Structures are given as structure tokens and as C-alpha cells.
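call fold(seq) -> C-alpha cells
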Amino acid sequence: MPIENSVPISPLRQSLACVGDPSGSFNAEWQKRAEEELNETPENLKQEVFALRQMVQNDTNLSVPNDDAFLLRFLRARKFDSKKAFYMVQRYYLMKLKCPELFSCPIPSECSKVFNLQAQKMLQDRDQLGRRVYIIRMDYFDSNIVTIDDIFRTNVLALEQIVREPETQIAGIVLILDMAGLSLQHAKFFTPYYAKKMVELVQETFPLRFKGFHIVNEPFYFDAVMAVLKPFLKEKIRKRIFLHGSDITALHGFISTDILPSEYGGTGSSFDNKAWYMQLLAEEEYFKNLDKYGYKIGVQEDE
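ret:
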């Protein structure tokens, strides 16, 4: 069920106030969508949050935030199936324990050199379906300044910010990956190791609904990159990958030009991530506190 562009985006703190409140803090349109798409009813919410909390508490090696808002993001990502949500909670924290160089969330003030490259931006407005839109411009990543691990963790930071928004938990996120200027220096971004980690993040681990991946300006040899990724992709995710080449108008069939930067044929202002970065910096204390939670050192994932 589409959410019209006229629906205003709540500020993050106001948005957070309605998480976990089944009494109707969402407007009626969002409530209806959550019920239709995610099986989110007041009865399911109460029952499945309780069940998920019991499972988390029984995992004595695991520490999570003591509020329903945290659990809700996993339940929404798994359509209120508490068992599947619990498996995702486990994978989420095991990911951070086993591979912190990629998955531990940095604090925003540590990321200035990455954001200064103007390579990543979360658009301020939602698209016509209520989804968040995140743009990554490969050509702007300078391997002399940042490492692939820096880039990966900065993307995790972006996801950790928007997963706090109840509307985004419901509607999901769309990614636009601009491959213009793809060169040999970027090849290491698509090794099987990093490809597998990216796919794990999207498919099994991070509590967001990844609704579309739009590749633009990809070179002719991008098929080789896709060949690396495909063995790790589930059919559902494969169907959500769209290759547009240099035809930016094809992208407009999926994402309204009303919110796109002018570089992508939109009516919005030119690409500039400064405002987005300032929003992240304003939440510095929140990100510092994320390290308080997770698995105790020494816990190993079951094979």
C-alpha cells in the first residue's frame, strides 16, 4: 500500500516516541500498512514482543537494550515471527562480535574523512512508497584516503541510524549504487569475502527490509561483479536488483524525481551529504552506547 509523498517525515525523536506503542501513535495509514504487510496488530505485538523477550533473556550470554523499541525492529523485519526475529538478533550480535572491523558501528565524529568524500547520502525525503533512499557513489571513494573497512562501517552507521525510525522499519530502504568511474582501485570492494559479508548483512542479519537495489552507470564489465555476488544471493534479493546503465530515466520508474538529487535527473538539490552528517553527529551519544550490548567475548556461532 503506497504512502503518498505528502505524508510528512517525523523527526527522528518524534518518530521514536511511537515505537512499541500499539495504542495508535502512528497515523491510520501507517497502522494499516503495518498490519497488511507485517501482521502487526495490537494482539500480535503484545504476544510476539513478550515471546521474543523471553528468548533473548534465556540466552544468558547476550545483552540487549531493555526496551520494546529494540525488539520491535527485529519483529518487523521478520513479519512478527518471534522465532525468526530471535535468530536475527543472534546473527546481528554475532556479526559484530566475529567481524568488528566491518560491523561494529563507529561513532559519527570518527567518520569525517569518509563523509568529506561526498560518496554516501541518505536522502531526506522518503520515496512514493514511504521508503528511505540511500545513494552510494563509487567514483568518489578514494582508496588513498579511506579503506574498504571504513566505507563498510560508515554504511553500517547509516543503517543503524534509520533502523530507529518506525516508518522505515515498515516501509524499508532502497539503495542506489552509482558505478560511474568504477576502476581497478575499486575491484577489492567486490572480492568474494566482502561480497559475502555484504549479502549476509542484507539477507540475514540487519533488521531492515531491503526493498530494492538500483545500479546506475555500471560499466560493461559489471557482469563480472554480479557473477561474484550471485552465488550468495537468495532469489528474493536477486529479483530486487535492477541494472539501469546510463539510462537514468529508467530509475525514475522506481523512485520519484521529486526526491532525487539533480545529478540523477531529480528536482531536488545537488548531492550534498553535509546535512545528513550533521544529523548523525547530533546522535553521537546514542552511537557511543551501542557498544554496551552484545555477546560476551568468547561466544562462538554454531556451525
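Residues 42-58 form the longest helix (17 residues).
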